[in-house]
Amino acid sequence: MRDWHINSVGSLEPGQDADDFDLPDGDYRLYRFLTELEDLQTEVTNETAFLKQLCPMVRRLLTRSFWLQGAFKEPNPDTGWSVEMLYDEPDFPLTVQMVAWQPGTVSPIHNHAAWGLVAFVDGLEKNIFWQEQVDGHLAKVGEHIFEAGDIVTFLPESIHHIEATGKDTVISFNIYGKTDYQKRFKFDPKTHQKTLF
Length: 197
Prior knowledge:
Number of strands: 13
Low-confidence stretches: none
Mean pLDDT: 91
Structural class: alpha+beta
CATH architecture: Sandwich
């Protein structure tokens, strides 16, 4: 259980081990987390530094507001996934949600065109990381299986796809910054075409 960061070229960088965090005692509710998150985003303009400071806040939230770990919908059997929106306010540049993937589900290769954080609550999720080359082709740059207790952060230009591995539903707490929908793509690794997601 540790923090991980996908950098701008798609490489996975290890961060702090979960055992190294000294989380404050006492309640930590979603409304307070959102207020502190908004303040942090205003104060720390470097996205990588911001994401690294966000990780312990999320660990504290999931530990002190335990109800969040059960605030998800079972995956839709037709799509293989579900999203339970926890917070999405108009003109507020943050989206907070619980996501569930049924075992065996595979996503398309995509970017998010926003910074993001995924905190794994249950299950095993394999991430495959890609980089778009100058000629438009995709190159695989790595892969990693995340498990419960891991947190991964990524930048708007990070490209990946996921596979829900193992026997259990993959459940995660996800936060995304403001999405630039004109830069959010899914990629076809065979044709090397990208289309708006």
